[in-house]
Amino acid sequence: RQTVHSIFGTREALVSEAMADLTRAATDDLRAATGRTGNPVDFVVELIVGGVGFARSTPAIAAMIGVGGGNPLFDPGVLTRAKVVALEFLEPIAKDFDRIDEVAEVATHLSLTFFLFGEPDQRPEELRALLGRWLVPALTELAR
Fold this sequence. Notes:
This protein is mainly α. The chain has 7 helices and no strands. α2 (11-35) packs antiparallel against α3.
């Protein structure tokens, strides 16, 4: 304990340095993965896939966000349960889409993402504009 305090000063500083090392390693891995891509779209896909993989495979990150630790927002069945609810809400427009299950899945993922990680002071019109730029084109492809 004395050695840890003499090097880092506090427990918080030790944790901060450990997280910085994890971040550097993840950054290097993400840069390597994205560097192997051939176009900007693949770059973004690899960045997302790599980031999710890092969060899922790093025990320290998983522990911080409660993955598998009894937090109902992060348990393995949350998306399955949420998708059932999303499908109920989407029922009035289900006939308008070729793959309503995909629409429900994407809507569920996006909703949870904005709820958990979105800016708390983001105004509804800002979120609506962001979704309009990104989600509307994708949904248009799935519409009948």
